[in-house]
Design a protein that fits this description.
67% helix, 154 residues, Arc Repressor Mutant, subunit A, WH_DNA-bd_sf, mainly alpha, 3-stranded antiparallel sheet
């Protein structure tokens, strides 16, 4: 059996700081978004992906891939959003077994109303404390890590 490659002290501190930041940032953004709009971060993520495509509709597997969620999580979450009138499921005319997740007018109105406050919170809590070089470094780091994750999943 191979000997584990433990994190050195600097890596351990960086990793724990990242986990703490990510957890606290997500919790705070979720809290603010819910208080201001009634949307969760998960709702917002779904709505963003639907507003980013022509016609506001995606196949469930496309949405699942874009969000990187398990199928059951997506299915349950879409059911909750559907009950609230934010999305609906429509059969695909070309494929009797297929379906689309479609953004409703209420869903579009909800994200349109929520987006300015959410972007302001992201800017205030995250980007306003970073300089341009740090933003560039963050983009490069995130790209490197996601590229590694993409390769590991193949």
């Amino acid at each position: 059996m191979d000997t584990p490659r433990w994190l050195d002290d600097d890596q351990q501190l960086a990793w724990r700081a990242y986990l703490r930041m990510q957890g606290r940032l997500s919790a705070e953004l979720n809290r603010r978004l819910q208080a201001a709009s009634g949307l969760s971060l998960a709702d917002y993520d779904v709505l963003v992906h639907l507003t980013d495509v022509p016609g506001g509709r995606l196949r469930p597997y496309e949405l699942q891939r874009a969000l990187d969620w398990e199928q059951s999580r997506l299915s349950h979450h879409l059911s909750r959003m559907q009950r609230r009138g934010l999305v609906e499921r429509r059969e695909c005319a070309d494929d009797g077994r297929g379906a689309f997740v479609v953004l409703t007018e209420a869903g579009r109105e909800a994200i349109t109303a929520a987006a300015p406050g959410h972007v302001a919170a992201v800017r205030h809590l995250f980007f306003d404390v970073l300089g341009p070089d740090q933003v560039d470094a963050l983009r490069r780091l995130a790209t490197q890590v996601t590229t590694r994750l993409d390769a590991a999943g193949e």
